[in-house]
Amino acid sequence: MIFAVTALEATDSTQTEVKRRAVAGAPEGTVVTARHQRAGRGRRGRDWWDEPGQSLLVSVLLRPTGPSAVAPQLALVAGLAVAETLEAGAGVTARIGWPNDLLVDGRKVCGILAEAASDGAGRLDHVILGIGINLNQAEFPDALCARATSLRLITGAAHDAEALLPVLLACLDRRYAQWQHGGFAALRADWLARSTVPGQMVRLPEGGGVGPAVDVGDDGVLLAHAPDGRLLRIVSGEAGEEVAAHAARH
Questions:
Q1: Burial of 247 (0-12, 13-18, 19+ CB in 10 A)
Q2: DSSP annotation of 164
Q3: Which residues pair with 100 in a beta bridge?
Q4: Of the residues 193, 209, 231, which one is the last residue of a structural domain?
Q5: Domain tally for the chain?
Q6: In whole angstroms, what is the distance from residue 188 CA to residue 199 CA?
Q7: Cα(21)–Cα(19) distance, rounded to whole angstroms?
Q8: I need a labelling partner for 236 at 20 to 30 A (CA). Which of 38, 78, 214, 246 fits?
Q9: Which helix (H) or strand (E) holds 173?
Q10: Residues 189, 230: one domain?
Q11: Distance of alpha carbon 40 from alpha carbon 57, whole angstroms
C-alpha cells in the first residue's frame, strides 16, 4: 500500500479529518497525523485526552472489499500491528486487551478506534483506523493516572512520533495484506499470543454482567462465558470491554 501522510499541527480529530477525505473520494492509504486534537474521540463516544506533542495521533483510511460484517476484524488487525510497532520501534512489550487497547503492566499505552462506512448493499466502502499512542507524557490527569501510561514512563526515555510512524505504517501494511488474503484466521495465532485472552474479564452484551473471555474465533469474534455457563459470541464494538478499564476516558 502507498501511504500519503498529511501532518497537521492541530485538528478537531484526525478521524473526522480522514472521514471528510474519504467521503470526497480519497484513496486507500490516506493518513492524517496531528500533534494535538481539540476534540479527539475514543471508543464508545469517550473523549480522548492528549497534551500537544506528547502522543502519536494518526488515522488511516482503508478501503477493503467485502461485507460490512468483517469491519470489526480490522480493529484487531490494528491492535496486532501496534503491538509489533511498540516492540520494534520502542523495545516495549505490550499486551492486547480485548478488543484493541494496548496495555503494559495493566495500564493503557495505546487506544484504537475503528469506524466503518458501508454502501446501500451492505458492502464496505471504507474503514478508518484511529490510533493514539502515548509517547512522552510524564504524568496524566487524576482520572487517568491509575489506568494510563506512556512509552516515556515505561522506558525512561523520550520517543519521536515522526520516527515511530513509519514503523507503525509498515507493520499495519504487512498485517492488513495478510488479512486481505486470509482473513483474521491468518493472524489469529499471532494475535492471541500477544493478547490478554483467554482469561480477561469482559462485559457481556445486553446487560449480561461480566464473564471470562475464552477464545477468539477465526472470524474475530470473542467467545466468553456468561454467569449461567452459556458460551457467548461477542463482536468487537458490540460489548466486551475490559472490565478494569471500562470507565477510562482515554
A1: exposed
A2: H
A3: none
A4: 193
A5: 2
A6: 17
A7: 5
A8: 38
A9: helix 161-182
A10: no
A11: 9
Give the count of alpha carbons within 13 A of 99, CB side only. Answer: 29
Domain, as residue range, for 93:
4-193
In this structure, the answer to whether residues 44 and 9 fall within a common structural domain is yes
Q: Is residue 250 assigned to a domain?
A: no
Residue for grid cell 478506534:
113
Q: Which helix (H) or strand (E) holds 234?
A: strand 231-234
What is the torsion angle, in degrees rounded to the nearest 10, for the CA atoms of residue 203, residue 206, residue 207 and residue 210?
-30
The C-alpha cell of 194 is what? Answer: 500477544
Q: DSSP letter string over 59-98?
A: EEEE---SBGGGHHHHHHHHHHHHHHHHHHHH----EEET
Task: List the pLDDT tens digit at each of the 250 positions of the chain.
Answer: 999 999 999 999 999 999 999 999 999 999 999 999 887 554 444 445 567 889 999 999 999 999 999 999 999 999 999 999 999 999 999 999 998 899 999 999 999 999 999 998 889 999 999 999 999 999 887 777 788 999 999 999 999 999 999 999 999 999 999 999 999 999 999 999 999 999 999 989 877 789 999 999 999 999 999 999 899 999 875 544 443 322 222 2
Q: Which three cell numbers, joined as nine digits, stand for 169? A: 505504517
Shared domain for 230 and 113, answered yes or no, is no
What three-state secondary structure class fits 228?
A: coil
